[in-house]
Automatic annotation (TrEMBL), chains A, B:
<dbReference type="InterPro" id="IPR000524">
    <property type="entry name" value="Tscrpt_reg_HTH_GntR"/>
</dbReference>
<dbReference type="GO" id="GO:0003677">
    <property type="term" value="F:DNA binding"/>
</dbReference>
<dbReference type="Pfam" id="PF07702">
    <property type="entry name" value="UTRA"/>
</dbReference>
<dbReference type="Pfam" id="PF00392">
    <property type="entry name" value="GntR"/>
</dbReference>
<keyword id="KW-0238">DNA-binding</keyword>
<dbReference type="InterPro" id="IPR011663">
    <property type="entry name" value="UTRA"/>
</dbReference>
<keyword id="KW-0804">Transcription</keyword>
<feature type="domain" description="HTH gntR-type">
    <location>
        <begin position="17"/>
        <end position="84"/>
    </location>
</feature>
<dbReference type="InterPro" id="IPR050679">
    <property type="entry name" value="Bact_HTH_transcr_reg"/>
</dbReference>
<dbReference type="InterPro" id="IPR036388">
    <property type="entry name" value="WH-like_DNA-bd_sf"/>
</dbReference>
<dbReference type="InterPro" id="IPR028978">
    <property type="entry name" value="Chorismate_lyase_/UTRA_dom_sf"/>
</dbReference>
<keyword id="KW-0805">Transcription regulation</keyword>
<dbReference type="InterPro" id="IPR036390">
    <property type="entry name" value="WH_DNA-bd_sf"/>
</dbReference>
<protein>
    <submittedName>
        <fullName>Phosphonate metabolism transcriptional regulator</fullName>
    </submittedName>
</protein>
<dbReference type="GO" id="GO:0003700">
    <property type="term" value="F:DNA-binding transcription factor activity"/>
</dbReference>
<dbReference type="GO" id="GO:0045892">
    <property type="term" value="P:negative regulation of DNA-templated transcription"/>
</dbReference>
Length: 258, 258
């Protein structure tokens, strides 16, 4: 096969914006993966050579990551990492405080907590009879004071009411459910979307209007299959990543070992 | 426990924006889940009663979903669904055409395809020796002509070179790898982020500048554990969702059956 004849598709013929994006994607992963231990990126000329791009394309790549709030230029120092991203595993069903305990203290501002009549589609997902109420809990969740996520939670009444007397400010709802019910949670169905922050959500989460958020819907079940906890979660895209391992073969996804 | 005394946390005391968001989250899932078979939402008064909010709060909720490009108002008809979201399973390692075959035809604009010298962090992830080249493939992927994702792919040389003679325009890279190598893919490590589209990416993907994108990094391995395919994927947040099932207990995630 003559690769040289594929002039049109040759990766070195693309426009600067394409080359900048290609470099930015790799550097983003390095930043998130803490590949620069002192938080300072190599010199632009070194990076440009590393990625085989012009200095202008490399600067465009760094501009993209600066717009994302990951890096910044500091005169006399160079390009430094300014935004940390925290990993939220998609491998197991875990609460935020469980996941992030090594990164600091998770606290929750309780914006609402009490019984409501749920909309019918929420009632259906929780397999409730017509007219049954749920406990609604709305929390702004912080890591070391920094707002990370806004969680809207609908709980089956028997599961949710005991939680209202517990320490919702410092505890994950998952662990409180298991403690107060004496039962284990089993599986959760999770759906992820990327959505731009509206004005009010951006104010609450302290991000610019329109900032990219991960929106997660998560329906958690007791081990016996009964759905008890339906959550709508807005996660700051500039501060959280989600990871998992997928299997090519079979219907069972892989664990976190690969 | 006296729920009535929790005035501050009472869900019915919150501001309109909070109530609007709460309603919007539930309606968004109904739209994505095709809960409105004729594509027309119920009357505003019906929805307001359903969600226990004022008509103004309900309108604010619909405004949020209109900004996301999911619904629109049509005079004389009402509020209609205008944006379809396609489900991309996170349960199994599958190519886009495999995942979306029931929704239509996936075609790929090949923006680049050929050997390059990879940046060192890419070489390390593919476990390549210093100086080894990779095959780089850049594709704009469309479903029925609509741009859905921009994929930047680095392939080990022995795996990637044979693909350059294949039908990259109509086939998933996963299935081409398995066909040309005669080997099966095993697991993939996946990381998801939400990122705002830069000017150039927004032009390519035909979304507004700043639109929320899902950015996926995926490192796929042969069944023997050798990493062969590293991809950086930008997915349109307004057109794709990703779903999976998580397990509370143990290190092995659940399948898609729950």
């Amino acid at each position: 096969m003559d690769v040289g004849s594929r002039e049109q598709g040759a990766p070195d013929r693309r426009c600067r914006a394409d080359r900048a994006r290609q470099a930015a994607d790799v550097i983003r992963r390095q930043v998130v993966g803490r590949a620069f231990p002192d938080g300072v990126l190599p010199d632009e000329l070194v990076l440009a050579a590393e990625f085989g791009v012009s200095r202008n394309a490399l600067r465009e790549a760094l501009d993209l990551l600066r717009e994302e709030g990951l890096i910044d230029r500091v005169p006399g120092v160079g390009t430094v990492v300014v935004g940390e991203k925290y990993p939220h595993g998609l491998d197991r069903l875990m609460g935020l405080a469980e996941v992030l305990h090594e990164h600091g203290e998770v606290t929750n501002d309780i914006r609402a907590a009490g019984p409501i009549r749920p909309p019918s589609s929420v009632a259906r997902r929780l397999r409730l009879a017509d007219g049954e109420h749920v406990v609604y809990v709305e929390r702004l969740r912080r890591l070391n004071g920094l707002p990370l996520s806004l969680d809207l939670t609908y709980l089956a009444m028997d599961v949710g009411l005991p939680l209202l007397d517990e320490d919702l400010r410092h505890r994950d709802i998952f662990s409180l459910i298991e403690q107060t019910s004496g039962r284990r949670l089993g599986t959760a169905a999770v759906t992820l979307e990327a959505v731009n922050a509206d004005l009010h959500a951006s104010t609450v989460l302290e991000v610019p209007r329109g900032a990219a958020l991960l929106v997660v819907e998560r329906l958690s079940h007791f081990a016996d299959g009964r759905p008890v906890d339906l959550e709508f979660i807005r996660l700051r895209g500039d501060r959280l990543t989600m990871s998992t391992v997928l299997n090519r073969v079979g219907s069972v996804a892989a664990g976190s070992g690969a």
